[in-house]
Amino acid sequence: MKPQRQRENREKIWLALEIGNSRLHWALFLGETLYSAWDTDYLPESVIQHLAEYQTLDDLLEKIFLPSQQAESLTKTLPLCPLLLASVVPSQTAIWQTYPNTCVITLDQIPLTGVYPTLGIDRALALWGAGKAWGFPMLVIDAGTALTFTAADANQCLLGGAILPGLGLQFATLGQKTGQLPLVEMHNIASLVPRFGLNTTEAIQSGVIYTLIAGIKDFIEAWWHLCPDGKIAIKGGDRTLFLNYLQALYPEIAARLIMESNLIFWGMREIVINGG
């Protein structure tokens, strides 16, 4: 790597970490450009406490499981870089703050108006990132551990939203909190199931999936009634499943959805580059 390019990278490179309810979500940025994004399981506290001992970014990225071939040409010999952190898990936030040069994003850094104090930082950042990327009014659907809806109007004012258990959580609850119902595996439901199941597993799949899709459709229609020109972005681990289901049942709705997994990182980028 040439010295000039190396100096530029030292100035511009930064890491983003979203601590979700189930996993860690990472992004490596070169200035405004998202160079790579990946997910990992939670790291043991002992590992996190030793991250500051690494001397180069390449060493750090290898420890947090970014495939070395993705980072080697960019990060070789580069020093540890700033870490921008957004977390919905307070216990994990406290642990990661031991990493040097960490900046924890808070709600007051996001220029949405009308925000209430307990709004999740993940929801706020995703909404801000989507709105800045595609314009307001914006509704963000997060199909993760929880299924959430979060909306802002054309004036970038929070309109509110909703939270309910996501697909996997609903299946897990039925399997764990009932005496005889089986635990339904997510990998068995890539395509839309019959509406009327002929066994218990099919009945659970039908009940959960069709009810969730009906709820998503209802929220989308209510959103367009409120903001006819409003845009909709969908993120989260189950986003592809839900989009497939919507394409099968309501293709006119599916065609208008923006599917983007990195909305929170777009919001974090706005904070870093533009201060909001």
UniProtKB/TrEMBL annotation:
Annotated pathway: Cofactor biosynthesis; coenzyme A biosynthesis; CoA from (R)-pantothenate: step 1/5
Catalytic activity: (R)-pantothenate + ATP = (R)-4'-phosphopantothenate + ADP + H(+)
Any Gene Ontology CC annotation: cytoplasm
GO biological process: coenzyme A biosynthetic process
Record's subcellular location: Cytoplasm
Primary localization: cytoplasm
Keywords: ATP-binding, Coenzyme A biosynthesis, Cytoplasm, Kinase, Metal-binding, Nucleotide-binding, Potassium, Transferase
EC main group: transferase
Binding site for ATP: E18, I19, G20, N21, S22, R23, L24, H25, T145
Pfam families referenced in this protein's UniProt entry, alphabetically: Pan_kinase
EC number: 2.7.1.33
Any one GO MF annotation of this record: pantothenate kinase activity
Binding, substrate: Y116, G120, I121, D122, R123, T200
Cofactor(s) essential for the protein: NH4(+); K(+)
Active site: D122 (proton acceptor)
InterPro entries according to UniProt: ATPase_NBD, Type_III_PanK
NCBIfam families per record: baf, PRK13331.1
HAMAP family: Pantothen_kinase_3 (MF_01274)
Subunit details: Homodimer.
Name the record gives this protein: Type III pantothenate kinase
Species of the source: Nostoc edaphicum CCNP1411
Gene behind the chain: coaX
